[in-house]
Amino acid sequence: MPALLLGIGLGGFVDGIVLHQILQWHHLLTGTGDHPMTSLAGLERNTLADGLFHAATWLAVLAGSTLTVRSWQRGEFAPPWRRHAGLMLAGWGAFNVVDGALNHFLLGIHHVRDDLGGPLGWDVGFLVFGAVLLAGGLALSAGASRATASTR
């Protein structure tokens, strides 16, 4: 569970830092039409929403880190690296799938490329990438669990 939370939070950081800030393809509210990133007022509202989004992803990383440390304090062994990495990838994928399905398609509050008018292909690609991360992460984690069980 801690690795899954870390993956959700870190996946949110990648989305926010890379897509929102570095590439500036979209912000959290750009798809609504009420908050265009081309106006100062729209950019101010989007910057606030992006900041709140980053605070939420930071809380997910904090929760995952806290749970990890508490497990170690209880004397529990760290999970195998493949299981930990797999669950982090699965968390990132889950973030992308939920963000893509909910915010890009159902609510339409933003799209991956709002700077191009939100073409469907970018949103579908984002969902596919998330699904691949989720499935690959779960497979990596399950493979580590089977390997650990067979050595007992």
Structure description:
This protein is mostly helical and 152 residues long. The chain has one domain. Helix content is 74%, strand content 0%. It contains four helices and no strands. The longest helix is centred in the middle third of the chain and has 34 residues. The chain is elongated. The two termini are 22 Å apart.
Total separate domains: 1
Measured between the Cα atoms of the first and last residue, the distance is 22 Å
Shape: elongated
Percent in helix: over 70%
- Reading the helices and strands in chain order gives HHHH
Low-confidence stretches: none
**Content-based structural category:** mainly alpha
How many helices? The count is 4
Chain-averaged pLDDT: 91
Main sheet attributes: strand count, strand direction, barrel closure: none
Approximately how much beta-strand content do the residues carry?
under 5%
Task: Return Rg in Å.
Answer: 18 Å
Compute the number of strand runs: 0
Features:
74% helix
Which SSEs are present, and which pair or pack?
Elements: H1 2-22, H2 40-73, H3 81-106, H4 120-150
Helix pairs in contact: 1-2, 1-3, 3-4
Task: Sum this structure up briefly.
Helices cover 74% and strands 0% of the residues. The protein contains four helices and no strands.
